[in-house]
């Protein structure tokens, strides 16, 4: 449990962090709405099958997980800095919060995706929790060493792409570390299997880097902006070189297509599971460039976006069952029944067809409706300093 004295300390918020996190949360919801309201039988980033609109809709949501995990590491440092907390206190908080997030992923979130337990999905909330536990150990090292470890995990992990998990404990461990996998539990189990979507590496490195780089945000504005602009531009430039010449950092090569638009789709179709170096450069670089601009953003719309950034976990937990349940309602109205196997094209009604306009309307409606409970909860967290609110 956190120290009551530390938890009563008013924590000044960095506006750009709330705004960036809010934007990411809003964009993330688009991907999940698309899954339930306009799922397609093809990979939206497969240039041989997709359209530019589908490709863009999927590509823009790639920014969500890397930025959110980077900011989770940044927030861990700012949490301790604002409270003048010891590393032991921060480590306890990271471990307990990490375990809590992993528990919520296994129980509430996995159920919300399916409204059943056909499988347990270990996705972004799981890997954030596991990365927090790793970070709890790393913070006892010098901060520069934490940053170097983060960079090493990000830049070097693709060297091990060719290693497939074997059998037994070592194979299971390698799957947790680096290879997405499905592990059947057994015919006698009520849960057929565990689908590990987000391996630990390099996500733990992204969080470690966010922690190590967090003091940049506390520097004077001119110095902070200069560092962020230079770093973000360098990441984008390195991505363009590595991707443009199909060099190191992603297992799949891009190729010129029949049209410029499809060539762009092929160019940005980099591996997310696990995220390749090119994937992380492509997503984190622009995010760093955006932070100085968000510091200058003000007005009613900025205030609304920041609401989501103040309660990201709360939004995440409530938006999945909301999107799922409203999609069920639409399916009943449209097709007279619930499409239980909506992700299996062989079970789709003959009249079903993906429709991005439908997905975008559902997405905008979801954001509008869920803004109000998020605003209420953000107000609750501001008014009260109970220790348990730090876990939501």
TrEMBL record:
The keyword Aminoacyl-tRNA synthetase does not apply. It comes from Parvularcula marina. Residues 13-225 form the Heparan-alpha-glucosaminide N-acetyltransferase catalytic domain. This is DUF1624 domain-containing protein. The chain crosses the membrane at residues 59-82, 94-113, 119-141, 148-176, 196-218, 227-245, 276-294, 314-336, 356-374. The keyword Nuclease does not apply. InterPro entries: HGSNAT_cat (IPR012429). It comes from the Bacteria. Keywords: Membrane, Transmembrane, Transmembrane helix. The lineage of its organism: Bacteria, Pseudomonadati, Pseudomonadota, Alphaproteobacteria, Parvularculales.
